[in-house]
């Protein structure tokens, strides 16, 4: 009897071991080293292109800077601090500020001007960086901890220098522990004006939408915010969504035009009424309107800007303005029908281990972080990417480039070229996008729901011949 009991126990243990062994193996396989280079991460995906382009042409990320020293046209010093943020509602939170405020100062520059931003970390204990979201900066200025620089520790300074090549609405934010530092306030707006400045006929407003501890604000203010505008004024409102999910923006009291998406002008945008605009997480939408005698409002899914006399708020229009068919076609400047590389970026979700932790994790083409595809390109390649979500809403953001939307779920884009750097991909949707690889470096291509990114929804666009000397881990935590 004792013997058979022992046999049963042994059999039970063997059964457990048979079950546990693969689990232990999966756990073990999911562990990441204490520090690693993104260049060694995952599996290279050549997208049907050459394995090596210009092997003689090697360059390291830190050398991909703005050439020449020149005197800056715009010079800003930003001091990052652990600080108390007080909202006008009386609410207080322990957050992070730049020069004592959140959002930080609006930075304005003209196309081609040399912008120099000195970031001093006074008291952000995890270290910090600044990423210029949407700007085609040289790679070494991209501000991603562990990919394009080391996080700036307390007491240190990092200087960013770049010449923004295109006018439009951008923003900047920390790319070190970004899923915490962005919501906690290390953010600000960057407006790049055309050469010679804005046309003086238009009132130019920034509307940076950010939630502090669950309270949605515009430029740090809550509720209904009166702005200085009089009937007859033409106004451009630059809506910036710094959150993790899409927001709706619409105009009460008058028709409007969607003048730009993600810093690219819409070609011949028509005037619309009864439409709302979806602003992707990380994305921007510039709304243009003329203030009527009775006043107008720009509604931002909670707070609103009141232009002219106080006019009644209107409910969100049911119909959404669809950029796929909005505006008129214009040349792209390249032929997306003859790509050099084609990639898939299919986002699923499955139970597994990531970094030794069990959970339901995001997958990219079936693979889990850090074993995700590394999208390899060579300079001048025309690149096509098919992005699919088979899981949640994913606002997909590519650093250093702008992509043009070719189709959604097989329906071709027939309006203005729809250029994006942040694209809202809803569950079940497939977008075909294309871009020209014209900015060598190592570039993040990730979900801008920063919580998802921290859970491993991160891949990279990597140019052949680029060496990455920085390492993830050891103080660098980009997500
Ligand atoms: Cu707005 Cu990778 O960032
Ligand atoms: Cu996501």
From TrEMBL:
MF annotations from Gene Ontology: copper ion binding; oxidoreductase activity
Keyword Chaperone assigned: no
Alphabetical UniProt keywords: Copper, Metal-binding, Oxidoreductase
Keyword Oxidoreductase listed: yes
InterPro entries given in the database record: Cu-oxidase-like_N, Cu-oxidase_C, Cu-oxidase_fam, Cu_oxidase_CS, Cu_oxidase_Cu_BS, Cupredoxin
Plastocyanin-like domain residues: 83-195, 362-461
Alphabetized PANTHER family for the sequence: FI03373P-RELATED (PTHR11709:SF394), MULTI-COPPER OXIDASE (PTHR11709)
Protein name: Multicopper oxidase family protein
UniProt source species: Jiangella asiatica
